[in-house]
Write a sequence for this structure.
């Protein structure tokens, strides 16, 4: 039984039909990618899983149980999200310490000190960062804090919404390595949304390509690496991700 | 033929700890070719582009031993000289078209206004505007002429922006991350337009980007900037043989579709690079 | 390590150090604005004078001297600001009057700011019918000119400084509610609010812990800038005989009292007028300075 099972998901915002019948299944421990361009509805699928976007039709099941709206508190201990923009996803007036200890307070953990310290070490930030404000951190450090916050409740599922697209290439590599390491250490399940095929190919075993709210096709990493795409749209994306090609003069 | 010559360009901002240089001793020459400037955020690549156009924001100050465009000394240019140069002979395309287009004027009016500088009359300006929109691959120029900037998609807006910057047929175009806000497929189309314009009109192009892979596939030559300095200058085709560890690190840390390398090599920064 | 280094370190070792460092940085930014420092000085002086009024005032503010020989004396060494028609020393009355002014300012701030913040953030955060109901109530309060509404309240509750304060407080929260709501509308779609929602936080925690702190600075700035208006409203009510009652030395009431002699004995009305002017100006300078350091949107 897949850990995350989405069938025929529709999301409407008023007249806008953002997601039109997307189905996917992610096994436990797997990393699953969703690739698409802006407006393809890829982020909306992610937001629908965690309840930030409404489910108009279809169902989302986790461990075989259909999710209800609003999500029960226990849900947030099983699935967490990392946002795209590390400058917007941390409260500007809260220290790292406050950011990390608040979820623990909400869920009634008592050993908060030890957990915060461990979470900082896990994402490669030392204790020296604990009482800093976001404006005292670089983009990469902020994204590490965001990852630490997502993991502090020890969820099994991590939803990643373009986690590195606001970062420089060298910082992107560090964050991708961190995510990779955490997944193998903790047996996490990832759903990664990105516009960058190379990032998804690096991180995920399987992926879907989305366009206009619909699934264009589903591929495995091996198929992607071999450029075995059945659809023109996917082939265009693949070609574009190689960079600019000049027609022979 | 040298179109632009820059020698020891330095851009300095005052700060509490004394003056801070965000661009340090940058020198290069540009012919009628595509030159890429690559670097990460804070490398000074955008500041370099702005300084060439005399657009260093206050309280910053740009100095150079030589800053010459087509034989004109830009260091000594008066505000009047700048008005004659900017827009007409040298232009800049920014990352986000929404900030560079006037939101309360139709594209057509903005284009025609820009075209008036080179056109013989009102009708000629309009014809040039339509022709320019066609040149940047806008299929329905009449609709775009009548549209306001917010009515256009990102790719369309960026094309309209490029059309506006090119309608005066400048000799030099500085494009600062012109495609970073666009989807990859649209990005390639916009680059193709720029590429045609360079080849057909013999324009000089400075292409500023963080995307090493894109720049190396598009440009003839690449300057790699780190902490305000040019650490390496090389032909785009020779990027694989880059000497500087920073350039090599930047190339290496990108994930690749057909290579499965894990963990990704990360960049070990060296204090000496910044010196 | 000096105290300064301890405060400005990029690696604070404790919650307290982080918070104090942040406060110190704000202070450093504030200190650079000279007019703001002048405003802060005036406001601090008001507080000091109010606290030490019995020791500072040379004479009794209520009981005057001889009505035959000491009425309406021009400013002199004996009476630096002259005396009024009851032969009372005006300087002493102004010094004691600062207590009333400070009371008005402090109570209005303490009552109106939380009401405005709570109404505004709640309306903005929930949206929908909550927003509609709360904001229409706010609109009703906003529709009346402040002085008129305060007049109606005082007329209903009876004249007196306490009722004047309640009336002013009730009429000053609507602008703060609107401001807080507008801020909340931009904040509530931010990723960091979504993030805390995904941690399972309740709405009350999100509003108080995450939205209010971000609205607070602009509301504080607005309240400070409004202080001048509040002092003037209190003075206006006093002037109309609806605020502080004689013989209380309220500045507005003092101007009203001096109105009859304004041509022959200018100092009776002018001196309390000057006091109102200086304190209002002080709050305005302070508010401007606070806006520069607290409200990031005001930065150039």
């Amino acid at each position: 039984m897949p850990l995350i099972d989405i069938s025929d998901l529709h999301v409407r915002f008023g007249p806008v039909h953002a997601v039109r019948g997307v189905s996917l299944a992610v096994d436990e421990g797997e990393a699953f990618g969703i690739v698409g361009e802006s407006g393809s509805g890829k982020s909306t699928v992610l937001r629908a899983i965690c309840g930030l976007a409404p489910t108009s039709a279809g169902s989302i099941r986790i461990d075989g149980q259909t999710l209800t709206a609003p999500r029960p508190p226990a849900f947030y201990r099983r699935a967490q999200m990392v946002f795209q923009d590390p400058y917007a996803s941390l409260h500007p007036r809260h220290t790292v310490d406050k950011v990390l200890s608040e979820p623990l307070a909400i869920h009634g953990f008592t050993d908060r000190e030890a957990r915060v310290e461990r979470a900082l070490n896990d994402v490669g930030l030392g204790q020296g960062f604990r009482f800093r404000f976001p404006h005292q951190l670089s983009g990469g450090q902020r994204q590490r804090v965001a990852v630490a916050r997502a993991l502090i409740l020890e969820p099994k599922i991590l939803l990643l919404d373009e986690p590195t697209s606001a970062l420089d290439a060298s910082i992107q590599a560090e964050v991708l390595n961190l995510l990779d390491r955490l997944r193998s250490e903790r047996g996490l399940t990832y759903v990664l949304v990105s516009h960058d095929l190379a990032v998804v190919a690096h991180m995920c075993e399987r992926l879907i390509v989305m366009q206009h709210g619909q699934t264009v096709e589903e591929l495995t990493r091996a198929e992607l690496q071999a450029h075995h795409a059945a659809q023109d749209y996917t082939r265009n994306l693949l070609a574009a991700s190689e960079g600019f090609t000049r027609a022979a003069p | 033929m040298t179109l632009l010559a820059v020698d020891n360009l330095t851009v300095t901002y005052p700060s509490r700890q004394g003056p801070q240089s965000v661009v340090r001793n940058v020198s290069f020459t540009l012919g009628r070719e595509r030159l890429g400037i690559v670097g990460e955020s804070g490398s000074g690549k955008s500041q370099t582009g702005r300084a060439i156009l005399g657009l260093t924001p206050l309280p910053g100050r740009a100095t150079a031993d030589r800053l010459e465009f087509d034989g004109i000394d830009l260091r000594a240019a008066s505000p009047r000289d700048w008005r004659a140069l900017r827009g007409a002979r040298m232009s800049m395309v920014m990352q986000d078209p929404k900030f560079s287009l006037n939101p309360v004027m139709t594209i057509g009016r903005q284009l025609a206004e820009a075209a008036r500088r080179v056109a013989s009359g009102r009708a000629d300006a309009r014809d040039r505007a339509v022709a320019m929109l066609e040149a940047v691959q806008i299929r329905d120029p009449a609709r775009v002429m009548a549209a306001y900037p917010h009515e256009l998609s990102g790719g369309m807006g960026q094309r309209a922006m490029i059309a506006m910057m090119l309608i005066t047929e400048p000799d030099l175009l500085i494009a600062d991350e012109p495609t970073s806000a666009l989807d990859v497929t649209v990005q390639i189309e916009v680059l193709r337009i720029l590429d045609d314009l360079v080849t057909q009109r013999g324009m000089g192009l400075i292409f500023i980007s963080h995307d090493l892979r894109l720049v190396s596939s598009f440009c003839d030559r690449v300057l790699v900037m780190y902490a305000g300095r040019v650490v390496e200058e090389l032909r785009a085709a020779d990027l694989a043989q880059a000497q500087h560890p920073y350039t090599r690190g930047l190339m290496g840390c990108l994930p690749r579709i057909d290579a499965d390398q894990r963990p990704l090599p990360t960049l070990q920064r060296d204090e000496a690079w910044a010196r | 390590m000096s105290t300064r280094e301890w405060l400005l370190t990029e690696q604070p070792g404790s919650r307290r150090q982080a918070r104090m460092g942040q406060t110190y940085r704000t202070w450093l930014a504030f200190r650079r604005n000279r007019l703001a420092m002048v405003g802060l000085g005036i406001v601090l002086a008001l507080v000091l004078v109010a606290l030490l009024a019995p020791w500072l005032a040379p004479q009794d503010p209520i009981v005057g001297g001889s009505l035959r020989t000491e009425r309406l004396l021009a400013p002199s060494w004996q009476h630096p600001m002259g005396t009024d028609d009851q032969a009372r020393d005006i300087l002493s009355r102004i010094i004691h009057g600062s207590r009333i002014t400070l009371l008005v300012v402090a109570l209005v701030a303490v009552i109106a700011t939380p009401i405005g913040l709570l109404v505004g953030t709640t309306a903005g955060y929930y949206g929908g019918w909550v927003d509609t109901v709360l904001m229409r109530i706010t609109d009703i309060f906003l529709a009346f000119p402040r002085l008129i509404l305060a007049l109606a309240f005082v007329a209903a509750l009876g004249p007196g400084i306490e009722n004047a304060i309640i009336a002013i407080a009730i009429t000053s929260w609507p602008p703060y509610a609107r401001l807080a709501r507008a801020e909340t509308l931009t904040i509530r779609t931010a990723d960091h609010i979504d993030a805390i929602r995904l941690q399972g936080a309740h709405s009350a925690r999100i509003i108080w812990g995450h939205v209010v702190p971000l609205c607070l600075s602009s509301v504080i700035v607005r309240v400070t800038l409004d202080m001048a208006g509040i002092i003037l409203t209190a003075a206006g009510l006093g002037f109309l005989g609806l605020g502080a009652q004689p013989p209380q030395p309220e500045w507005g009431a003092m101007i009203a009292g001096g109105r009859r002699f304004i041509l022959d004995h200018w100092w009776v009305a002018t001196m309390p007028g000057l006091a109102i002017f200086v304190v209002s100006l002080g709050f305005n300078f302070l508010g401007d300075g606070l806006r520069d350091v607290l409200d990031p949107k005001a930065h150039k």
User: Anything to note?
Assistant: Strands of chain A lie at 4-13, 16-26, 31-36, 57-62, 65-66, 79-82, 157-161, 189-194, 206-211, 214-220. Chain A touches chain B at residues 37-38, 139, 168-170, 172-174, 176-177, 180-181, 195, 197-199, 201-203, 221, 224-227, 236-246 (CB under 8 Å). The mean pLDDT of chain A is 88. Chain A is about 35% helix and 25% strand.
